[in-house]
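Structure request: Succinate-semialdehyde dehydrogenase (NADP(+)), Candidatus Viridilinea mediisalina.
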Amino acid sequence: MTTSYDPEAIAAATLDATRHNLFIGGIWQPAANGASFAVNNPATNMPIAMVPDGGATETTAAVEAAAQALPEWAATPAPARAAVLRRAAALMLERQETLATIMTLEQGKPLSEARGEIAYAASFLTWFAGEAERIYGMTIPATQAHKRLLVLRQPVGICALITPWNFPSAMITRKLGPALAAGCTVVVKPAEQTPLSALELAHIFQAAGLPPGCFNLITCQNPDAFADVIFNDERVRKVSFTGSTEVGKLLIRASATTIKRLSLELGGNAPFIVFADADLDAAVQGAIASKFRNTGQTCVCANRIFVAQAIYAAFAERFSAAVAALPVGNGLAPTTAIGPLIDAQARAKVERHISDALEHGAELLTGGGPAHEAGAGHFWQPTVLSAAHGAMLIAREETFGPVAPLIPFYDEASVLHQANATPYGLAAYVYTRDLARVWRVAEGLEYGIIGINDPIPSTAQAPFGGLKQSGFGREGGPSGIHEYLEEKYVSLGLE
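Returned structure:
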């Protein structure tokens, strides 16, 4: 594969080793014992940076810094907090190209998608800047003339924010924006695969004038030491986590020690339902946008594509042809649509799911193997499987890769049953032009996010979160800031 870009030159121009340190109390510092670990480019399997490997000592220092900063930040007037968030958002957009390049280098997604994520990430800061100015209390009519009843809303306190590698900027700002807007201080732990985007955000907030200690950042390879400190320190009042359901269950157990508030955005198994009356071309393009964005490595991407039997053959033909045409390669190449998987473990899961599906009767329509021509990284051909069914691993588990299984269905009731037959309930998608069906299906699907003729429904001003084992709590929208606020009831006697 020939390219007109030089990834090493771009990396050298973009990445500055002096920027890669822990950020504690407004000070950039190495790990106390000097330990560090490599950040690899999944497109080349080569290291692009070294970052500190923090542990219990550094995490304790970060909590202490957040505790010291909390009283002043919580007392800062809402318009002043909002101004910091707006300045940070503006700086993100000003540095969009640099931030996007760093993201592509460490995460692998196409540069066009990385640019879009930076804009999306900045939108959370802008939205929650406005929400900071709308933290309203209440007065309640009293039953006795000499009483006045009030409700106050105040910041929860110190919050630990644990973010994943697939959206290394947006998953931070979606948590950081409401936390800072509410008056909380934070300790952030980004995924070990993608810490560079988080470090850049810390630099941006420092430049935006956020007081020292309000935003602390710990990079680490092993999260156990970080978690032990966070969950056993009573000063940390809330933990927000995006990741697997298995880890989420561990965090629920750990939170019992000090009764911490949790927000959990966990695994998914999204159905994508195409009814016979759907606009076929729109459904094909919508399925591609949902399934193959970020190489299929999103918690809300289509995992099971249900297609009405009446249009199944036509959909399968158009969809597989469009998928086969998606260019695979390094995300820095301008034509790339499918970048690398994040690591060898992710590629092994994709291969396992495809092998299991073929063993259980699926038919391979396109793809199905590693994309060797793309380079030395963890590349996989975008793949479409026909005749999939619920007994296959690919229908029961979240694949997190560029594989689309097509499942035929015969009527509305049966597809709703199949779509809901999973412990997960994060996102679902429906293509239909029948308005009555829109209401029935939206009400019948057991999912927290539903896109009707919309493959990418997420936006800063709307609530994001799941049902069942996909977690609890909401990020984004007016409800997003409530996750970081405590409610106090005050009964005032006038006599």
